[in-house]
Specification:
Layout: H1 2-25, E1 30-35, H2 38-53, E2 58-63, H3 68-75, E3 81-85, H4 92-96, E4 101-105, E5 121-124, H5 139-147, H6 156-165, H7 176-187, E6 191-196, H8 206-211, H9 225-235, H10 248-261, E7 266-271, H11 277-280, H12 282-294, H13 298-305, H14 311-337, E8 340-341, E9 346-350, H15 353-356, H16 359-368, E10 378-384, E11 387-393, H17 396-400, H18 405-415, E12 419-422, E13 426-432, H19 436-450
Parallel strand pairs: 1-2, 1-3, 3-4, 4-5, 9-10
Antiparallel strand pairs: 6-7, 8-9, 10-11, 11-13, 12-13
The structure holds manganese (II) ion.
Amino acid sequence: MIQKQQHSLLNKAEEACDLLRKHLESDHVVRVISHNDADGISAAGVICNAISRQKGKFHVTIVPRLKESVISRIRKEKYKLFVFCDMGSASLTELGRLKGDVIVADHHQTIDKEAKSRENMVHVNPHLHGLDGTRDVSASGVSYLISRPMNYPELAGLALVGAFGDMQCVGGMQGINKTILKDGLEAGTVEVREDLKLARMSQEPLYRAISHTFNPAIPGISADEEGSRAFLEKLGISYGVKFRELGNEEKDILKDELIKINPNVFGNVYSIPKEVPQLRNIEDYSKLVDACGKNKKHGVGLSICLGDREKSLEEAEALLERYQDNLAKGIGWIKKEGSTSLRNIQYIYTADKKRKRVMGTISSIGLELGLLDPEKPVIALSRMDNLVKISGRTTQKVTGKGVNLGSALEAASKSFGGTGGGHNIAAGAVVPYKSMENFLHLVDDIVETQTG
Ligand SMILES: [Mn+2]
């Protein structure tokens, strides 16, 4: 069954490939529009790499959302082929009105069902083939499938960068991601081995690599450089060296002790063997590209995906380091201040400019580290002038009891003239600042109803 679904998606992707080839043969510049996160940037990277290898030309723009204003700007452009990555499925009607041909390479569930199928458009989305776009394949993967008939298995690693960015590889790969991995393994362009899953382990001194590891979270060590140093000192390992500089015995001790704290810290590590050390680990690669996206330096992220291993890479490393320090500070803040509990939820609030940017992420990590009560959803509030931006985060255990933050935040924000929504485990909303208190109490009530 899965085989059949994969085949029908691959056929659709091949149709898109044929259309792309047709335009490249006519020497048309391909217009690529993609999303500003790690998945979107690497998706554009995959398509543009394929175009370059075919000696074609492209013009890329990275946008946060496919807003009406973006579409109307594109509508004035005279390109003969538009490729939309990591977006577009929800806007098929509007995209169908573009003058040129259109390829949509998306993996989101929201699909514009009103749109009639059009001759000038090939729409590639796993959900149309009974596959799961949240776990089975990301936009970079869908883009890879479109380039796959051109046979560039060296792009398989980049195709998985987006899957990591969209958190599709937690607990192993499945579906199309596995098919892409297989392409890479067979061609030797991707490798997998069992190892410690520490952040930027080949670049950073050990205490930083360990304290910057948030996924999986290591209680007492993640986001805690002092804790990390003390942990290493207790083991008799010097904290300033890099992992590869350790002796085998030291490596084993470190591994055993970390596994005692969180067994998930050891497992499959995926890499691109031919890459420079900073990008060799695919998860590290995705974090670097993600840091570019988060800092609105999409061009830097894209340049890395297109092969710049000098200036852009240096810039991305600096951005990532700053971001990780900001995260660590945010988690330190949670550790110190904690959250305020209502009956069924807990909340944290900030007006700090830097902290506002990581409120959702530090909520998730805080839950994982046990700094926040794992039994209650976290509502993170960031003040933006007259508005409050809200991120809701909870655990699988709590959603298992019936909690759905997406619908809770949607309903509660609507009551105060705001907007909101998302997934059961992670959601967002915006409401007027003056309604913040009432909003919190309403969310508290809704969560109570959800758990019956
Ligand atoms: Mn995506």
